[in-house]
Write a structure and sequence with these properties.
The protein is mainly α. The protein has a single domain, classed as Arc Repressor Mutant, subunit A. It has a two-stranded antiparallel ribbon. A two-stranded antiparallel ribbon has the order 2-3. A hairpin with a 6-residue loop joins strand 2 and strand 3. Helix 3 packs across helix 4.
């Protein structure tokens, strides 16, 4: 389903990307996951980093589908809400190379 977005929302998105804020937020999320390890859902990342869920969601989607720095992990229960979630984490390729 398509929605009609107001031009200001589209402009705001482009300004956010052009200003470098989106890149800085992606870097912050990726560095946190590299440091902490494991897999994380949007809510867990937002709580750990003190960021809003919608911002984390947008940056995680970019890290998954644009930069391919993150991959989807097997579903599990959220540590915070105990609902089934689809977490993300680092690709295993680099780590698997250690065992070859």
């Amino acid at each position: 389903m398509r929605i009609a977005q107001h031009e200001t929302a589209i402009d705001s998105f482009h300004n956010h990307v052009d200003s470098g804020k989106a890149h800085a937020q992606r870097t912050r999320i990726l560095e946190f996951i590299k440091k902490s390890g494991g897999d994380w859902c949007i809510g867990e990342l937002a709580n750990a980093l003190g960021m809003k869920d919608n911002i984390v969601s947008a940056r995680v989607n970019e890290l998954l589908y644009e930069t391919h720095d993150l991959v989807e992990r097997p579903r599990r229960k959220s540590r915070a809400s105990n609902i089934t979630i689809r977490p993300v984490g680092l690709p295993l390729v680099g780590q698997l190379a250690l065992f070859q």
